Amino acid sequence: MKPQEQKKIVRTGYDRLSYDYRSDDTPDDSGDYSSWVGILEGLLQENSPVLDIGCGCGLPATRLLARRFEVTGADFSEVQIGRARELVPSARFLCGDISELAFPEGAFAAVVSFYTIIHMPLEEHPALFRRIGSWLRPSGYFMATVGHDAWTGSDEAYLGVPGGRMCWSHADEKTNVRWIEEAGLHVSWTRFVPEGDSGHTLVLAQKPPAGNDRVRCAGGEN
Fold first, then answer.
1. What pTM was computed for the model?
2. Phi, psi of 141 (to 5 degrees)
3. What is the mean pLDDT of residues 53-62?
4. Rounded to the nearest 5 degrees, what angle is found at the Cα of 49, between the Cα atoms of 213 and 172?
5. pLDDT > 80? residue 15
6. CA-wise closest residue to 119 among 201, 14, 42
7. pLDDT at residue 222, as a whole number
8. Count of domains in the chain?
9. How far apart are CA 5 and CA 126, in angstroms?
10. Which end of the chain is more exposed for a tag (fewer CB within 10 A), N or C?
11. In contact, 115 and 145? CB cutoff 8 Å
C-alpha cells in the first residue's frame, strides 16, 4: 500500500470512528495513561512545553498533560482536532500530517505519542524520530508507544464498525530502539504493554544534555 493511501485510510477512519474510539466522558485515569503522564510529571518542571503527536480528541492523555504543562496537540483528523479543542481548551491544537508540520529546534521539553506512530507508513518512522530529536531541547524526553512485534495490516471494520477501515504498520521493538537511538536519543527503558494476543512497547528516551552524551535513566526498566 502506498503511503498516501495508508494515510488517507487512517485519517478518514478516525474521522468516522472518533466517538467509537473515545467518548466525551472518557475518564482521565483510563488505562495506563495516568501512570505514563505521572512519569513525565516527575521529570519535567511545571508549565514545560510538551508536544502530543496524534493527540486524537484530547482524551485522556492530552487533558492529563495540560493540567501541568503547556501542551501542543497535533493530529490530522479534522473531527478529532475539532473535539480536542472543545474538550481541552487550555491546550493548543494543530490539524495536519506530523511528517509535514514544522516546529523550531529545541521547542519542547518533551514529545509524547501514544498509539499513533503504529498507524504511520513504516518508511516514515526513522525520519519522524529524527525530527522529534530536533524538536526536543537538550535533556528533553520522548515517550511513545511503538510496535513490539513487526506487523503491517488493516481492518475493514475497526472497533466493530462496518466501513470503519484502519491501517497499521510498525517494526519490532529492537528496530524501534535502534531507530530512536540513531536519531540521537538515548533509550532509558522499554516496557511491554499487553493488548489482546500481543501488545506494544512503551519507550522512554532522552536527548543528551548540551555538550554531554550522558543522560540519567528515569523510572527503571520492567
1. 0.93
2. -115, 145
3. 98
4. 60
5. yes
6. 14
7. 44
8. 1
9. 19
10. C
11. yes
